[in-house]
Amino acid sequence: MHTRHPLHPRALAVPVFAALATLLAACNGPGYTNGSGGSSGGVTCGGTYSIACPSPTVSITAPTAAATVSGTVTLTATAMAATNYGLTIANVALQVDGTTVATVTSAPYSYSWDSTTVANGTHTISAIATDSAGDTGSATPVTITVANAGAGAAAAALGAEQIFPAPDSKAAGTGRFNVQADSGVLSGAVTVSGMSARGVAIHEGFAGSSGETLLTLTPSARHADEWDVPANAVLSGEQLAALAQGRLYVIATSAAYPQGEIRGQLLPDGVRVSFSGLHASEAELALGRQSAGVAAATLDARAATLTVHVNVAGLDDATGAAVAGSEGAPSAELARDSVDMGHFSGALAHLSDAALADFEAGRLTVSVAAASAPQGALRGALAPAAARGD
Q1: N or C: which terminus of the chain carries fewer CB neighbours within 10 A?
Q2: What sign for the dihedral angle of Cα 45, 47, 48, 52?
């Protein structure tokens, strides 16, 4: 009877390491080719002895997430292959809503995309990179908003109620504007009544906010109280996007009200605005203060976005503002202005079907809290946005 002796570890190591050496020699040999057929030194991928290589990486660098765009938009991606494995980027497919709009074979991976080929609203931009071994990598999609204005783009109804605090004026005005989407050329006029206007200008800003002057209108030679858009006035791509969102307004000034007597938003089809008064709560009334506020709402029905600007006065200890829906719906905090402490806003918030229904039914409310009334000093329902003033 023979005694079976266990194998010494060294007896196993010799054939195992010999086999591994043979494998590595085959992988690293000068004649070894990778999966794409090209020769390379060092560690390679594919071939008879496959070694998994990292997939290429790709990311969208333009436009940025949540950007609002119009007209021609530059789509840009960066991509990187596993260069330490001898791989390169073969191409990058740029995509809009999952459909490839361009395949670029060399850096920079950019393409000028015509955003007028899709409907206004939210869209996703992504990219797929393919390396020289045929492996692919996908970018994280970026969501943007397309807002292209069309011809006969906007009308405006001017009134004192669109200014805060509202001037004591019964003046009124109307505006008619046309814009060419391809060139940005703007034309139109504003007619005022019940006031002696000293100036009329178009500014950038949502209802309830103020912004810089874009165009100064000129007195008309045809009619008194009419002001014309200057000849050859052109809106930039960003200004066209602002117009499409309802983010341009016209304001008329007078000697009595040099900062503005009447104002109106330029509203394209699908964009509506409303102004709602905020009223003091019982806790606020008990303090005997003369506080008041106005909430301005801008609804872009095409993109399903809501912008809210809240202005309050007589509430020096205001701590925050929020919009809330029907019972059980979460509230959305509004950001406080860093300069005007009585101004709160939330821009271009995407509405769910339930939130849109709440808004249209007048069930969205705005509340403003104060240190002296933490449960709410001012409150009011957002009125459903009215159609543009045609």
Answers
A1: N
A2: positive
- Those residues whose C-beta lies under 8 Å from the C-beta of residue 315, and which sit 6 or more positions away, are 284, 289, 291, 293, 342, 368, 370, 377, 378
List CB contacts of 220: < 8 A, sequence separation 6 or more: 189, 226, 227, 228
Task: Tell me the β-bridge partners of 58.
Answer: 79
Q: Which neighbouring-strand residues pair with 344?
A: 310, 336
In 3D space, the residue among 129, 132, 242 whose CA is nearest the CA of residue 177 turns out to be: 242
Give 349-364 pLDDT, tens digit per residue. Answer: 888 888 888 999 999 9
Amino acid identity for residue 319 in this structure: T
Closest CA to 299 of 369, 388, 205: 388
Q: Judge whether 49 and 33 are in contact, CB under 8 Å.
A: no
In this prediction, residue 49 carries a pLDDT of: 52
Written as six digits, the tokens of 117 are: 């080929």
- Residue 145 and residue 76: Cα distance in Å, rounded? 16
Integer Cα distance of 37 and 242 in angstroms: 52
Cα gap 275→209, rounded to integer Å: 12
Is the N-terminal amide bond of 15 cis, ω within 30° of 0?
A: no
How large is the average pLDDT for residues 267-296? 92
Minimal CA–CA distance to 204: which of 258, 241, 254? 241
3-state secondary structure of 334: strand
Whose CA is closest to 121, among 311, 288, 348? 348
Please report where in the chains the tokens 């117009």 appear, as a residue: 243
Phi, psi dihedral angles at 181 (to 5 degrees): -60, -35
Mean pLDDT score across all residues of the chain: 85
Q: Coil, strand, or helix at residue 9? A: helix
Distances (CA, A) of 269 to 306, 386, 388: 15, 12, 7
Strand 199-204 to 248-253 pairing = antiparallel
- DSSP states of 203-270: EE--TT----EEEE-EE-SSSTTEEEPPTT-B--HHHHHHHHHT-EEEEEE-SS-TT-SEEEE-B-TT
